[in-house]
């Protein structure tokens, strides 16, 4: 990695330098070489802070966030404290947003049925409106329940509303 870092510095590739430095910092922390991890992390922060880079830190995920938290604790008087706090806060906000986003992929037809379920229609009413057999509606609803990880219509409606999926 040191050769890559030297080449990135020689060609003035700031983004590559930061990426390599962050990976090195994480590696040093895994090896329990905290001082080296902090030193390399500080180099990355010096490159990133003036330009306000955030995404490159967030993309490294929890291992880097944990390192940033340890750095904050160990380096109370170091410059960059506010910037590191902002990075950690951005990561935490992103995690909350990710929990609230839908990771389940519904077909167009399943989404139609979910709207009708929320509207309180029975299987027979849904079948008539969508020109489907009651058995087909029942199958779609079963698939929806599995994707939602629920057992009945009340739980499905509750989860859909709770997650603001429709």
Automatic annotation (TrEMBL):
SUPFAM superfamilies: C-terminal effector domain of the bipartite response regulators (SSF46894), TPR-like (SSF48452)
GO biological process entries: regulation of DNA-templated transcription
GO MF term list: DNA binding
PROSITE patterns: HTH_LUXR_2
Domain (HTH luxR-type): residue spans on this chain: 99-164
Top-rank lineage group of the source organism: Bacteria
Keywords tagged on the record: DNA-binding, Transcription, Transcription regulation
Gene3D superfamilies (alphabetical): Tetratricopeptide repeat domain (1.25.40.10), Winged helix-like DNA-binding domain superfamily/Winged helix DNA-binding domain (1.10.10.10)
Family annotation (PANTHER family): DNA-BINDING TRANSCRIPTIONAL ACTIVATOR DEVR_DOSR (PTHR44688:SF16)
Protein name: HTH luxR-type domain-containing protein
Organism for this UniProt entry: Paenibacillus odorifer
Lineage, broadest ranks: Bacteria, Bacillati, Bacillota, Bacilli, Bacillales
């Amino acid at each position: 990695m040191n050769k890559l870092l030297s080449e990135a510095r020689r060609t003035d590739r700031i983004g590559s330098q930061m990426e390599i430095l962050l990976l090195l910092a994480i590696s040093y922390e895994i090896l329990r070489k905290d001082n080296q991890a902090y030193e390399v992390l500080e180099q990355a922060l010096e490159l990133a802070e003036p330009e306000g880079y955030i995404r490159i830190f967030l993309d490294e995920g929890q291992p880097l966030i944990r390192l940033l938290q340890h750095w904050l604790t160990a380096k109370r008087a170091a410059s960059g404290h506010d910037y590191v706090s902002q990075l950690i806060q951005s990561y935490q906000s992103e995690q909350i947003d990710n929990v609230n986003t839908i990771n389940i992929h519904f077909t167009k037809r399943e989404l139609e049925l979910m709207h009708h379920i929320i509207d309180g229609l029975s299987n027979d009413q849904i079948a008539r409106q969508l020109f489907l057999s009651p058995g087909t509606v029942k199958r779609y609803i079963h698939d929806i329940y599995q994707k939602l990880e629920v057992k009945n219509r009340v739980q499905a409606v509750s989860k859909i509303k709770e997650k603001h999926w429709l």
